[in-house]
Specification:
Elements (H helix, E strand, L loop, with lengths): L2 H17 L5 E3 L5 E4 L1 H7 L3 H4 L10 H13 L16 E3 L5 E3 L7 E3 L1 H18 L3 E5 L7 E3 L1 H17 L5 E9 L2 E8 L21 H4 L8 H11 L3 E6 L5 E8 L18
Helix pairs in contact: 1-6, 5-6, 6-8
Length: about 270
C-alpha cells in the first residue's frame, strides 16, 4: 500500500473514534497524548492541537499526578486490572482549572457477535469485490450472547476486517467466530503478505512511533490496532496475532462471556499497554 493508502486508513479509524459517544484520550507508552476526539476537546476545554504530545498528567489535578504515573506504568502489565484496584481515584482537570470526576462506564448488553461481524463484513464487501477478494463469515449455530459493549466491539471488528481487506491483494479474508473456556473468539484471517515477528509488537503502537518507510506496508500503521488493544483490555479481553511472512495474518479477539469489570476507555490508559 502506498502512503496515500496508509493515510486514508488512519483517517478511517479516526472517523470511527470521532463517532464514539464518549470522550476518549489515547496516550502512548511514554504517557504522551497521541489522540483525542471532539468529545474530549469539549470535556476538557482544550483544542486537540493544545493536547497532542503533552503528558497525560496535564489533564489530572496536580495532587494525583505522581500517583498517576505509577498507575499509568501499571497499564504496561498485560494482566487483568480490576476496577478500583488500589483505591484509584480518577479526576479530570479542565483548561480553566476546574475539576470533575471521570466516570466512563462501559454499556454492557447481551450481544450476538455474529450480528456485529456480519455488519462489519458487509461494510467492506464492496471494497473486497473491487480487489477480487473472497470475504466470508463462518460461525457455529447456537452460540450464546456475550455480555459486552456492542459499540466498541463493532469498532474493533470494523478495524480488523478493514485492515485485512486493505492489505490483502490476492486470495481472501475469512472472519470466524468460535467459543470455549468461558469466552468467544472473533478471528480475522487474511492471505496477505504476513508480518515479520520483529514487527508484530510495533504494529500495536500509535502511528507516531513507527518508521514510515519500514512499516507502511503493515496493517498497524495509524491508530487502528492501538485502539483495538485499548478496547479489548477495557472489555476484559485481549487481541492475539499469528503471522509470518508469506503466510498471511490472523488477528483474534477474545471476549469473555461475562467479563469482570475493568476500567473503561478512560483517562491515561496508554494505548501501547493494551
Amino acid at each position: 500500500m502506498d502512503d496515500d493508502g496508509v493515510f486514508k486508513l488512519a483517517a478511517h479509524f479516526e472517523v470511527l473514534l470521532e463517532a464514539a459517544p464518549d470522550a476518549m484520550v489515547i496516550a502512548d507508552a511514554r504517557g504522551r497524548i497521541a489522540l483525542v476526539n471532539a468529545q474530549a476537546e469539549r470535556m476538557f476545554g482544550y483544542t486537540r492541537d493544545e493536547l497532542l504530545g503533552r503528558l497525560i498528567e496535564a489533564l489530572i489535578p496536580s495532587r494525583f499526578r505522581a500517583a498517576h504515573r505509577g498507575h499509568r506504568a501499571g497499564w504496561l502489565d498485560p494482566r487483568a486490572r480490576p476496577m478500583g484496584a488500589g483505591g484509584l481515584e480518577l479526576f479530570g482537570l479542565r483548561k480553566d482549572g476546574t475539576e470533575f470526576p471521570v466516570d466512563i462506564p462501559l454499556r454492557r448488553a447481551p450481544v450476538f457477535l455474529r450480528d456485529i461481524v456480519e455488519e462489519a463484513v458487509e461494510e467492506e464487501r464492496s471494497q473486497a469485490e473491487v480487489k477480487g477478494l473472497g470475504l466470508r463469515v463462518s460461525a457455529p449455530e447456537g452460540l450464546p450472547p456475550v455480555l459486552t459493549d456492542p459499540r466498541f466491539v463493532r469498532v474493533v471488528v470494523s478495524n480488523l476486517v478493514g485492515n485485512a481487506v486493505k492489505f490483502t491483494e490476492a486470495g481472501g479474508v475469512e472472519v470466524s467466530i468460535g467459543a470455549g473456556e468461558g469466552a468467544q473468539r472473533i478471528s480475522v484471517r487474511d492471505s496477505g503478505p504476513g508480518i515479520p515477528e520483529a514487527d508484530q509488537a510495533r504494529i500495536f503502537e500509535p502511528f507516531e512511533q513507527r518508521d514510515p518507510v519500514h512499516m507502511k506496508h503493515l496493517p498497524g500503521v495509524g491508530l487502528g490496532l492501538a485502539l483495538v488493544r485499548e478496547i479489548c483490555a477495557a472489555l476484559g479481553g485481549r487481541v492475539e496475532l499469528r503471522s509470518a511472512p508469506g503466510a498471511g495474518s490472523t488477528f483474534t479477539v477474545v471476549l469473555p462471556l461475562a467479563a469482570e469489570e475493568r476500567p473503561g476507555l478512560g483517562l491515561g490508559a496508554p494505548s501501547a499497554s493494551l
